[in-house]
Amino acid sequence: MSVYSVREELKPSGLNGISDEQINDHWNLYVGYVNNANALHKELADMRANGQGGTAAYTDRRRRFGFEYDGMVLHEYYFGNLKAGVSRNDSGAFSKAVAEQFGSVEAWIEDFKTCGKSRGIGWAVAYFDPATGQINNHFIQHHEDGHIAGFAPLAIMDCFEHAWMVDHGAGGRGAYIDAVVENLNWDVLDERTQAAQEGKIWKRF
Amino acid sequence: MSVYSVREELKPSGLNGISDEQINDHWNLYVGYVNNANALHKELADMRANGQGGTAAYTDRRRRFGFEYDGMVLHEYYFGNLKAGVSRNDSGAFSKAVAEQFGSVEAWIEDFKTCGKSRGIGWAVAYFDPATGQINNHFIQHHEDGHIAGFAPLAIMDCFEHAWMVDHGAGGRGAYIDAVVENLNWDVLDERTQAAQEGKIWKRF
Amino acid sequence: MSVYSVREELKPSGLNGISDEQINDHWNLYVGYVNNANALHKELADMRANGQGGTAAYTDRRRRFGFEYDGMVLHEYYFGNLKAGVSRNDSGAFSKAVAEQFGSVEAWIEDFKTCGKSRGIGWAVAYFDPATGQINNHFIQHHEDGHIAGFAPLAIMDCFEHAWMVDHGAGGRGAYIDAVVENLNWDVLDERTQAAQEGKIWKRF
Amino acid sequence: MSVYSVREELKPSGLNGISDEQINDHWNLYVGYVNNANALHKELADMRANGQGGTAAYTDRRRRFGFEYDGMVLHEYYFGNLKAGVSRNDSGAFSKAVAEQFGSVEAWIEDFKTCGKSRGIGWAVAYFDPATGQINNHFIQHHEDGHIAGFAPLAIMDCFEHAWMVDHGAGGRGAYIDAVVENLNWDVLDERTQAAQEGKIWKRF
């Protein structure tokens, strides 16, 4: 009676500069988050059913939503926006929006890269503000520290060490980030942006 | 050329058990977040324009999106879901959803209250998962630690000390939380939930 | 069989610009941390004794050491370095050290004040590095985020809202920080610094 | 005019179950923290000298002490307590203390291992409380979240992915933790503990 399932359709392969071995190692971590999200969800429901909903243990297990849920969700967004060989469409919704705000798509890319190089581990996320239509790059520390309530995530890049260590060892962050940008699925970014701009909440894809 | 404005229409008054003096003191903090969100947005744009987008100072100022933006956004959600005298509608979208998941609306309220009493300061947020329709109470530490990417915030309660200290002093968290639940605007919760269930992204209200 | 006791001898009174009512309200929070530190310590020992030391609940309760222990410890350091009317001694160990590093004691004070005004709630801590003798002001977010392992805390200022709201309301941070500096017990700072410089670990006082 | 230097004498080699290649990759990260700690220290001093000590940029760069300094310091503690082939001495200060508190050294080891397996990345640290003599295992998230002010770190284990990925890939945390315990330098743990018990602050070693 699980709530969440592994989203096999999102698994990338044949990327440029990110090996399938790296993706496979990484994918196993994602599967772990799905399992842990389901386990946490069930444990909390069981504790409530057993009258333990007011205990400190329940409260502190509940704090783990951030880590386990974001650990699952962000990986889905991330794998879902990676694909080799998708050309950028300058008239796509994402490209148009960031070009207007940052001056050019290249300037947004530069900012996204430096965001991904922020000291510490975490994620770079281009977030859409539904109230203003603005898109900014946010660095999320760990999985859960720095998200904005109600903003829509558009472009997502994993910046945990596991994302590059198989291919590059500990020092490979820069080369990895270049490769991620090389493999961004611009069609997906446009699709996500268009949905957000039309006021549609979208399931994770 | 500010991006964000103070949302005067959201300011509550005449609540039961939360004084207007308390709300006024609290509102001033919210105004401060709007100003700081605008200032941060402008400062980052200026730094990029001045070729400082790759500096450590820029990177570390960018980390403050979480605090300043959530500080603004969460207060808008919070003030926006407080109103005296709104009766709960058991067939409303929010009530139906949480009753199904928690067993009863009362059980959800109990869980929301204990969530708000989590040790430390922050927020209790009932979050909607667009992929499953599930609603869970999450404790957010500070303003930015614990949000789930892409989830929709439905019911929001401020649990910083400034929210109750004017009325109660440092020890008044429990009394304050009771008062918040007393003043929840169930119509707004239903409206937010219905929008989320229909796949509509909604501006903050 | 408690491990920790309330340190009554540390309670300040008659401070300049910080009312006894404010201190009393604040002291009650400190007492709560002592109780919670004892409760957490006992709960973990009991869980280990009951074979629950490997559970997720144990692991997540253990994460709370940071909040509860620092909540206790930092308040002891803070109350312990507040006293009305203690004159600064320019040849004291603390003053000499920070004057050398910052240019003057006044420059250190200025830096300590701006540290205390860092956006967000937490603590300003002047930390001594035992390996170099350097003293720097660190902003600690919440109670537990930002400490340096093995460094010795010298001057400590609480920057949670409860520290000033009784006297000033939410907007009183600046006036409160001025008052704290006005009431720093320079003798205690010198004593702590001298102990650290002599390589003595000191109990909290 | 650097404040910190790389501590070459702490670099381990010939460990059991942790390859020199793994240590070398890891050591490079440590060197990066030393460089970044020096750079941050200098940048803050320069900003103060240039009258920028009151800016938001200065304040936010100062927040990075936690990450850069702990990133350096914890690696020194960690490398400094790893050595192949050091037998445990049951009458050593560390072993005696934890045996008394946990029931046996084996029980402490078990607790240290589960601490190291806490979900998320960070460190397991056995911390000594100078006020009570108690030793508990604390999980530190990232480098800086969870330390206790004024406590003395005794046994330290890195639980970032870079610590095991060269040897094991992403899934190797458990095998790595076993190997760390296998290579603990019990003489160093005893030495650190004895110093702490005698009230001596000790330089990092």
From TrEMBL, chains A, B, C, D:
It comes from the Bacteria. Keywords: Metal-binding, Oxidoreductase. Pfam families: Sod_Fe_C. Residues 91-191 form the Manganese/iron superoxide dismutase C-terminal domain. It is an enzyme of class 1 (oxidoreductase). GO terms for molecular function: metal ion binding; superoxide dismutase activity. InterPro entries: Fe/Mn_Superoxide_Dismutase, Mn/Fe_SOD_C, Mn/Fe_SOD_N_sf, SOD_C_sf. PANTHER family: SUPEROXIDE DISMUTASE 2 (PTHR11404), SUPEROXIDE DISMUTASE [MN], MITOCHONDRIAL (PTHR11404:SF6). Belongs to the iron/manganese superoxide dismutase family. This is superoxide dismutase. The lineage of its organism: Bacteria, Pseudomonadati, Pseudomonadota, Gammaproteobacteria, Thiohalorhabdales.
